[in-house]
Amino acid sequence: MRTERNLTRLDRVFARLDREPERPAHIDVPKMSRHRVALLAGTLAFYLAIVWLVVTTSWLVRLDWQVMFFRPYQQWAEIHWFVDYYVVLGQRGPTAVMVAAWLGWRSWRQHTLRPLLTLGASLLLLNITVGAAKIGMGRLGPHYATAIGSNEMGLGGDIFPSGHTANAVVTWGILAYLASTPRARRWLSALSAVVSLGVGMATVYLGTHWLSDVLLGWAAGLLVLLALPWCEPLMARAEAGIFDLRDRWRARRDVPASVPVSPVEAPVLLKPLGTAAQNETAGRPPRAPAYLAPGPHTARSERTPVTPVGSRRPPQSDRVGRGTTSAARP
Predict the structure, then answer these.
(1) What pTM was computed for the model?
(2) At residue 154, what are phi and psi to the nearest 5 degrees?
(3) Which of the pair, 328 or 246, is modelled with greater confidence?
């Protein structure tokens, strides 16, 4: 009796790596629900509150200076090497490459460009919003502070909000946003929150950001994630357009271009030369008779040469014409 082999965990993993035959239909696209809108409004209010507390040099700015004078990188110097590596999880380049590789495989496997388009849209929104806030507020970092107790705003810096923190929230939060099941979404949301929280605290530990920079960075990244459902229709149209261009390019590449052939003309019937000559002769009008002067006419060869009048050449009377028998010379 033949029994089927039990699949091991490794076999199941490799089976999951196989490409799906068609785009899965069970993956739901997040929509802008009332709960999400309320969360977006609350996060925006928190964002504006942080900016107001820093602009007015409130207790939050005093807390920033207290943390800076505490110098965490000197208090816990033994973990400095680990924090130096951990903060890379918030840098734009390495994290974007890692997440893009994973989402690119998902796009290939699921026959959809939505994961990659979502990553591109989120990073574009992040660059626009966070970059504009950094340039507009111009706050200096702890290492470049000029006056103790000052909020360091409008001095040409680019530290507020924290780009590392916002990038960590968006980059790792995309994995939770694109999760295909509610359970995976919950686990990935918790994981991205822990990673982004650790990256923010790492920048405070290293002294590259104020504590308020990190708080505003968390809010900025969360605003981008919450606003992504508004971009879904645009991403769907972009995906349809890209697939349409791909199909037209494949059709143009697979079907060879047809060479235009000139139409065959009707065959020309060739006639024999003799028949053509006779037809031409028969078709011509009769020639007028040539005018001949009266009198006997002799051939040119029988005429006697005559010396023209006025010539210096002596007359040659002994010369006979052609065709006559000349007398034998002595």
Answers:
(1) 0.69
(2) 70, 25
(3) 246
